[in-house]
Design a protein that fits this description.
Blueprint (H helix, E strand, L loop, with lengths): L3 H29 L5 E2 L2 E2 L4 E7 L4 H4 L8 H9 L1 E3 L2 E3 L2 E2 L3 E3 L5 H10 L20 H7 L4 E6 L29 H4 L2 E4 L12 H7 L7 E5 L11 H16 L2 H5 L2 E7 L15 E4 L7 E3 L2 E3 H12 L21
Parallel strand pairs: 3-10, 3-11, 4-13, 7-14, 8-9, 8-10
Antiparallel strand pairs: 1-2, 4-12, 5-6, 11-12
Helix pairs in contact: 4-10
Amino acid sequence: MISFRIWRTLLSLLLGLLIVVSVAAFSIVQTSLPATGCIGTTCRPFDYIVTILMENKGYCQVMTTCGGSGTYETSLAQSYAIAGNCSSNSSCLPGGYTALFHPSEPNYIALVGGSNFVVTDDGNCCYEIDQPNLIDRLQEHGLMWSAYAEGATGSGTCSFMPPSKANHFGFLEFKDNNETQRCTHFLTTTPPTSPSGPADDHEFLAELNSASPSHYIWLTPNNNDNGHGSDASVGDAYLSNLVPKILNSKLFLTQRAALFIVYDEGPSNNVFPHDFIYASWSGPVVKQHYTGVGSYSHYSYLATLEKNWAFTCLVKNNDCNASPMTEFFP
């Protein structure tokens, strides 16, 4: 028979162990991910967002579920969240995320301005559109921002110029961004040295591991890494090296951060609203193993930011009426 004293000792030890485990678990949750994005009665899905724009591939050129070659992107989307379950680049049930225009540049303008503002082709540049844009809204709310482009010249100045100029960097289109203070946020980052090499982007990654990263961070890869001048598998290999570094950065391990990866447009024979593209969310605040059922477009990207940070929308019939992508967050 075990004496009462021994039972009491064992019970005390067990209770002590449970307390230690409970405290440890609480500590892990608190340090790896703040429990809530709520301030008073206002809640938001994320406090930080990183956006990567890829190029010229339809949903089924990327997702292996319908014939694509993006093995890493497929795995990422299935682990976290993907917009729609498409059977082809022009058919998506349920939901899906569609590009707006062909070619690239009007889409990039719409992603930061809520409209293409009659720009219908590549080659428009620079600082010509006299309309409100995303940077206005970020600065009005006191949010820090950074916009990176691989291999750009003139880092931190208003002479900033990515390899594809403004075609893949819509911020350069807007007149009020041609201002010294704003231009300090246009930053170059070093691309990989070769298609088969590991992703470098050390300037971009350094910010994610810094003490004070921006709330909004944009990355335009070069035309090899983004898939524009290469097969989808090349862009996929680039992301397979870069994305794990993003998700294991200090920002994503300690803050309520989300990563959004999207393509600008799909095949040129597909037109809005049936130009379906890969649009995935990942990170600690995103649902896992989730396929979205809503219908979205590039205007929904702006609508999501506007909903998250209570921004005034930009264009009445575009982002103002678009569905925010809130279903991807718990």
